[in-house]
Structures are given as C-alpha cells and as structure tokens.
Write a structure and sequence with these properties.
The chain is α+β, with helices and mostly antiparallel strands. Helix content is about 25%, strand content about 30%. Helix 1 (about 5-20) packs parallel to helix 3, helix 1 (about 5-20) runs parallel beside helix 4 (about 125-135) and helix 7 (about 245-260) packs parallel to helix 12.
C-alpha cells in the first residue's frame, strides 16, 4: 500500500507540473480526472492518490508513456492498474489498487528470455516522485536494483504458518508462485523467479505457454501463474504434501460423502486380509487400510474406480499388457473413455520392494500406444487418488448440479488433454548422476527416453513422442516404470 500522504502527493504534482512547464517539448501531461470519474471507478481511490489524479491523468516523455487511470475501453485488472508498457511492449508497469493506498508499483516482464520481475516502489506517489526526479536529472533508465527476494510456491504458502497469505492462495497451485510484497528488504527489489515452462526444447510449433499475474490482498502479494501449454516443463514444482495418514483419511472422507450424498457417491465393500493374502502381488499395509473398507468408488461424473481384481474393465490387449510391464507390475483401477479412445488408470507396483506407487493412466490401444507412447500422472498413491476424488466430490457438493460439476476436473485422467508436459530426456543425460534413480535409468538401452516424475505437477502428461530425440518413425517396445512409477521410461523397438 502507498505510504505517502497528501502532502507528498501534492509535492509530486508540483514537481511534475514545473518540469512540464520547463520542458514542454519533452514532457506532456494528460488531463486529470473529475471527482465523479474517480467515484465511479470499481476500485477505491484514496485521497493521497486523488490529489495526483485530479491534476494529472498521465505523462508522456517520449521514452515512457504512463496513464494513471482508465479512459475509453481501458479497465482495471485483477487487483491492479496497468500504468504503462515496458521493454517495447514486452512488459508492464502495474500498481496495486488497495483501499489504504495504491502500491506497490511492480514491473513485470515474464515473457522475456530472462524473466524480469521487480518491485519498483512501495507506493504510487513515491514512485511518481522518483520518476519525476530522474526525469529532471536527465536519467531515462529505471533505478538500479539493489535488493532481491525469492518468490515462493503457493503450495508451500498454503501449507505454511502465515494464515493471512494462506487465505490468499487457498489450497495453492503447483504452477503458481507468490511474492510477499510486505516482506521486501528495500526498493527497488528484484524477484528471483522464472516460469515453470521452457521454450528451449523445440516446441515452437505447439508452444502457447504464458504467465498470468495478479495482485491479491490489497497489495499484500503478487501471484505469478505459469500456464504451461504446448511447452515442456522447465523446472521442478512443489507438490501438495500427501498426509501421512492418507489411507485412513481417504476412507473417512469418502464414507462421509457417501452418507451425505448417497445419490452421487457410492462405495462398495472391501475385502478381508485373508482374501488379499491370496492375491498374486504383495499388498502393503497402507493399501490394506483402504481395501479392507472400500472395494470400489463411484462418484457421479468421474470414472468409477474398481479397486478389487476381476473387473472386466481391467482387461487389456495382451500386447498392451506386455508393453505395460506384464504381470505384477501394475494394479488396474479404471477404464477411462475419452471420445473413441480409452486409457487404463492403474497403480504402478514395484516388484522388488512390493510398494504400490504412483497412479498413472496409459492408452489401451496397442497401435496407438506404440505410435504415440504417453503416460498421465494422476496421483502419488492409491490413497492420494482417493483423496482427490473426495476433494472433487466436496467441491461439486457445494454447487448446484453435482454430476454436472465434477467433470470439470475429470479430463486430467486421460492422456494428453492439456496438462503440463514433463520433458522426456534421453537417459544418457543422466550418466554419472549422483541420484541413484537417475543413474540406474542411464543404464537403459540407448534411444530410451525417460522423465523423473518426483517433481512433476499432478496431473501432468508425459508425451514421449514429443521429445526432440524421439524419431518420428519410432515405435514403442515397452514402458518401464522404476521405483513404483517415480520414473517413467519409453524403450523404442530395436533399442
């Protein structure tokens, strides 16, 4: 928020008007706004800001043009007003529009090769006074940055201890970061941040990623959201923490929903330990906690999860079964239809440790999978997937038309439907890695591409055939999942 009072605002107006009189060929001031205009804006205009805006509506110096409020079709954005463009239209100078004052003033250029986000000043009138002084001194460049602060993942904020910031981000999002504008070491202050997508991997023909930003909490926080579309992810994300008691919590939440919304949430009974003991794969205790109580989950608008073996929807073509890894490598959950195509949601099993790992979905057409190998990451575990179902059901229950609301979040269960793309890397890139999982993957046959899913967003779409090094004519021999799906690899035929 703006920390300058009406006296400072009046002084900034006098200085800028005097400069305009002294240099009429260099400095043009735009007409101010009437009180009625200011009163009609959808944002508060505190008196300190009105002192400026009654007299001056903007300034044009030839090098810079700034408008202090909307005229014509211009409108306020989400928590801020755009003062003007920076870097030949690549960036914007924005100011938070809070009830206690306008500020901070933030320069945002997230689309350049080297993303540039900086907080220029704590308030609008202070920024204007500094701009006027630099203009009088003949300095056209923005002030030198002497401070910096790191942006923080909103998931970390949501799970943190600052209740005010947590309220601003809700549950948090793995592709959105936050800058606490109340905790800056000084001004101007650079923001250590970069988008989550990368344009460095030959995706120019499909790439349409962008950065969306807004200011929340009356100028308390800047939110930077990476919309990853048609480009590979460029850095690791912070995922939501799966609670240690996720199996017990998933059972309790689904039972509660089934009791309250029996028309929309239906659970089948689980099975006894003696039944699970007879299955051909080991069933760890965290999975047994679920399967003792629940054998199937049907939520209106979502694919039904059949957690017990023997469901006809679990069957796949023998060739697909081989490409998935064969017996003992996965536990089928649901057949997912999307148009004329189908995929199999499954839990990846680690035969060596007996762990039931990540939930993924894979296309079930043998020809489709061979030509366009891809995997969708759905959850970190069976319990995590069930908690996601419960969360979507709760959200739908809060709105009219339960079943009509859930499908908004259902597309993520099918492959390549618009979720972020982790980059499939040639496994040779990991030769000599200090990470045991990556080092082991580097021993896979030449031509294999793989992705480390431990720091990928959930959901995400792993499209092997989009990798730069995956030959256009290549055909998949088989998929390989290491450590219960934490790493996924595609081995081409002949590798």
């Amino acid at each position: 928020m703006d920390d300058a009072g009406t006296g400072a605002a009046a002084a900034a107006v006098r200085a800028l008007k005097q400069l305009a009189r002294q240099r009429p060929d260099e400095v043009e001031l735009f007409e101010g706004f009437t009180e009625a205009e200011l009163d009609g804006w959808p944002v508060p205009v505190p008196e300190g800001v009105r002192v400026v805006l009654r007299e001056i509506g903007g300034v044009d110096t030839g090098d810079h043009e700034y408008r202090f409020g909307p005229r014509g079709r211009a409108v306020f954005d989400d928590g801020y007003w755009t003062l003007g463009e920076l870097d030949f239209g690549e960036g914007s100078l924005i100011v938070a529009t809070g009830a206690d004052g306008w500020g901070p003033v933030v320069a945002v250029n997230p689309w350049s090769g080297d993303a540039d986000v900086r907080v220029e000043a704590p308030g609008f009138t202070g920024w204007l006074a500094g701009f006027t002084q630099r203009l009088a001194d003949g300095v056209t460049d923005r002030p030198v940055v002497r401070h910096s602060v790191a942006a923080v993942p909103t998931v970390e904020v949501a799970e943190g201890t600052d209740s005010v910031l947590a309220a601003l981000v809700g549950r948090g999002d793995s592709l959105t970061d936050l800058v606490d504008l109340d905790a800056l070491p000084g001004y101007p202050c650079a923001v250590d941040w970069e988008p989550y997508f990368s344009t460095a991997y030959n995706t120019a023909d499909t790439g349409s990623s962008e950065v969306q930003y807004r200011i929340a909490g009356d100028g308390r926080a800047l939110l930077l959201r990476s919309v990853v579309s048609g480009d590979f992810l460029g850095r690791a994300v912070r995922r939501h923490t799966v609670p240690a008691d996720a199996p017990r919590r998933a059972v309790a939440e689904l039972r509660s929903l089934a009791a309250r919304f029996a028309q929309f949430v239906v659970l089948d009974a689980g099975v006894a330990d003696s039944v699970m003991d007879g299955w051909p794969v080991a069933v760890p205790e965290d999975v047994r906690t679920v399967l003792r109580e629940i054998g199937a989950v049907a939520v209106a608008g979502l694919p039904a999860l059949r957690l017990l073996p023997g469901d006809p929807g679990h069957e796949v073509d023998p060739e697909v079964h081989r490409m998935l890894g064969g017996d003992g490598t996965y536990w089928p959950l649901a057949r997912i239809g999307y148009g004329r195509s189908h995929a199999l949601a499954q839990i990846r099993l680690d035969p060596e440790s007996g762990e039931w790992g990540y939930a993924v979905s894979v296309p079930t057409g043998a020809k489709e999978l061979a030509e366009y190998p891809e995997v969708s990451l759905l959850a970190e575990s069976l319990a995590d997937l069930l908690l996601t179902y419960a969360r979507l059901a709760r959200r739908a229950a809060d709105r009219p038309g339960f079943a009509g609301r859930v499908p908004e979040g259902a597309h993520w269960m099918f492959c390549n439907t618009g979720e972020p793309w982790p980059r499939p890397a040639p496994v040779g890139e990991w030769a000599g890695s200090a990470d045991p999982l990556l080092a082991a993957a580097a021993q896979l046959p030449a031509g294999t591409h793989a992705a480390d899913l431990r720091a990928a967003p959930i959901p995400s779409d792993l499209c092997f055939y989009r990798a730069r090094g995956w030959p256009y004519s290549a055909r998949l021999d088989r998929l390989h999942f290491a450590a219960g799906g934490r790493l996924a690899a595609a081995l081409p035929a002949g590798a």
